[in-house]
Amino acid sequence: MFFYSFETKKLNFLTKHKDLILYGFSLAILLFLLKWIELHFVIINHSFEIYVGLIALFFTALGIWLALKLNKPTIIEKEIFTNKKGFKLNEIEVQKLGLSKRELEVLHLMSTGLSNQEIAEKLFVSLNTIKTHASNLFEKLDVKRRTQAIEKAKRLSLIE
Amino acid sequence: MFFYSFETKKLNFLTKHKDLILYGFSLAILLFLLKWIELHFVIINHSFEIYVGLIALFFTALGIWLALKLNKPTIIEKEIFTNKKGFKLNEIEVQKLGLSKRELEVLHLMSTGLSNQEIAEKLFVSLNTIKTHASNLFEKLDVKRRTQAIEKAKRLSLIE
DNA sequence: TTTTAACTCATACTTTTGAGTGATTTTATC
DNA sequence: GATAAAATCACTCAAAAGTATGAGTTAAAA
Q1: Range of the domain at A131
Q2: What is the DSSP string of A80-118?
Q3: B25-71 pLDDT, tens per residue?
Q4: What is the pTM of this model?
Q5: Minimal CA–CA distance to B56: which of A58, A69, A48, A23?
Q6: Which part of the chain is the HTH luxR-type domain (chains A, B) (predicted)?
Q7: Could you give phi then psi for residue B90, rounded to 5 degrees?
Q8: Whether residue A63 sits in one domain with residue A26
Q9: Based on the domain organization, do B48 and B98 belong to the same domain?
Q10: Would A7 be classed as within a structural domain?
Q11: CA of A111 to nearest chain B CA: how many angstroms apart?
Q12: Is B124 within the bounds of a domain?
């Protein structure tokens, strides 16, 4: 019980140094225990096998505990392919293309599947305004359709 | 050496069952060893402490080995952000939505920014056919526009 | 202060897209 | 060979998208 809570709660604080101290401490206890068990061995004679068995059991446990403590966890890196997180906007490309803040905004809303009308409502401007932005956008991106714009924008990390 | 190669190469094949068998096997060997060491103990008398020490050492080693064997490696998930590589088509979702091969094809071409007319030319069918496919596609995906379809399809790993 | 770029909006027009309906052919399955 | 699903195509109508042009407003920069 002592070892268990110690392991789980303070696992990260254990350094090689502390482990060594702990090991020495354990050995001291063990020597004492051995002598104690030996005494019983003298009293209860002919129970040699039991004595050996106890020692074997105890040291097996010690070995297990030691190994679990000293063994650094094997780290298996598992790759997770993610699209959404870790996005870094390509500001260089944005500047190179001369995209304005509003245009980038419209572009992003486009990519979410909104219609021009919906974008207009979301940004509190008229449909014509959005159309103008869209047209300028397509010209700057050198595309003909919004689907192309979205594709290119994602490819250039302008959005998403 | 034997154990090492066994660990690394067959790590995934080791089940609880096999571990138990291995443990039993080890115990059998140990009993034999104990008897052997005991024999030496009888011959070389008064070396009781050495005998105990050997057993202790051996079982500590056994414990360590056991722990290393039984201890499952800690799996640390590391996210790697990749856009293009490692794409796995979500066939389960495709089936769930009931998308046909042709519909999926049209969907993919849509996502590349092609117009219906261009898709029709690419697939050597009429514009009307593509429109029909698109309509069915939108119904199945429960969307209203192609941009929404593309967005949803990418989200569900139906394309790209 | 003038200039410039960004943002706004309108009108007119064209093209593309999408909805709805119906029908024929192909292909695979029972 | 019947059946069902998939693919094909047409026609109409409506909605959305896109083009072109012109113009007013605002805010920042020269």
Answers
A1: 91-155
A2: EE-SSTT----HHHHHHHT--HHHHHHHHHHHTT--HHH
A3: 566 556 666 666 565 555 555 556 666 666 667 776 776 666 666 66
A4: 0.58
A5: A58
A6: 92-157
A7: -85, 85
A8: yes
A9: no
A10: yes
A11: 7
A12: yes
Distance CA B96, CA B140 (A): 10
List, in sequence order, every residue forming a beta bridge with B77; answer none if it has no partner. A78
Q: Does B68 touch chain A (CB under 8 A)?
A: yes
- Assigned domain for B41 exists: yes
Q: How far is the CA of A95 from the C1' of D30 (A)?
A: 21
CB B90 within 8 A of CB B129: no
Residue A136, in any domain of the structure: yes
Chain C nucleotides covered by protein, CB below 7 Å:
5-12, 16-22
Q: Over the stretch A96-152, which tens digit does the pLDDT of each residue have? A: 999 999 999 999 999 999 999 999 999 999 999 999 999 999 999 999 999 999 999
| B42 touches A at CB < 8 Å | no
Distance between alpha carbon A132 and the CA centroid of its chain, in Å? 44
Structure tokens at B20: 């138990």
Terminal Cα-to-Cα distance of chain A (whole angstroms) = 50
Domain count, chain A: 2
**B125: which nucleotide lies closest, measuring CA to C1'?**
D8
Q: B78 has which bridge partners?
A: A79
Provide the greatest CA pair distance for chain B.
101
CB distance from B94 to chain A under 8 Å? no
